[in-house]
Amino acid sequence: MAMTQVVNTKNEKVGEVELNDALFGLEVNPHLLHDIVRMQLAGRRQGTACTKTRSEVQGSTAKPYKQKGTGRARAGSKRSPLWRGGGTLFGPRPRDYSFTMPKKVRRLGLKMALSTRFSEAQLVVLDGFQMDAIKTKAFQAVMMELGIENALIIIPERNERLEKSSRNVPGYKVLPTAGLNVYDILLHKHVVLLKPCIGQLEERLLS
Q1: Which site in 4, 87, 91, 102 is 20 to 30 Å from 117, CA atoms measured?
Q2: Rounded to 5°, angle at Cα 177 from 194 and 126
Q3: Helix (H, G, I), strand (E, B) or coil at 24
Q4: Residue 160 contacts by C-beta under 8 Å, 6 or more apart in sequence?
Q5: Parent domain of 61
């Protein structure tokens, strides 16, 4: 078990918390993290790219000119892929790029991503993050106090004031514990974790 300090929004130490090694102290496998990120990004692809084949392009089905005597190629249709305006040969068609990985592997990847940020001393535990109103300046002031320019902020549950206060500031993202994922953890330089989230993560990933 590792101990880390808990700070408030003014970057003052207000206590310590014990972090489970099974969640924050794992040896990292970069290849596994790469596969999980690739899975997440593949699932976001629309897969709507489409080209028309020779049976779908507009054009006459008549033979352009006679078979013999012209000295030209023996063309049978203006829709041929060889002709300008003809169909596309082996072009992209609508498809689903997504693939899945075992649930245990996805859980392990999430624990490894958290372990990465903790081992790099880029994990900050906050005792709370309350916003009295939707104010971007107030959010930026807190981040300046913490000395963090790029971070994923993990909160116990949806917080509209915090989410809207941060969404216009580049480099920050607010996610509830239920939406935590490997890609967002690795995309941001720091992870700001609210103290109540630790118990939620242990229940989600270690149960």
Answers
A1: 102
A2: 5
A3: helix
A4: 134
A5: 51-91
How high is the pLDDT of residue 171? 94
Which CATH number is 118's domain given? 3.40.1370.10
Secondary structure E strands in the chain: 2-7, 13-19, 123-126, 151-155, 172-176, 190-194
Residue 167, both tokens: 């969404």
SS (H, E, C) 131-182: CCCCCHHHHHHHHHHHCCCCEEEEECCCCHHHHHHHCCCCCEEEEEHHHCCH
Q: How confident is the model at residue 130 (pLDDT cuts 50, 70, 90)?
A: confident
Whether 81 and 114 map to the same domain: the answer is: no
- Spell out a b/e string for 173-199, using b for 16 or more CB atoms within 10 Å of the CB, else e: bbbebeebbbbbbbebebbbbbeebbe
CA angle 184, 46, 187 (to 5 degrees): 15
- The per-residue pLDDT for range 17-43, each reduced to its tens digit, is 999 999 999 999 999 999 999 999 999
CA-nearest of 176, 169, 185 to 36 is: 185
* Residue position matching structure tokens 């118990």: 199
Q: Does 159 lie in the same domain as 107?
A: yes
Tokens matching residue 93:
């068609």
Contact 153, 129 (CB under 8 A): yes
Please tell me the predicted confidence (pLDDT) of residue 3. 86
**Co-location of 25 and 118 in the same domain:** yes
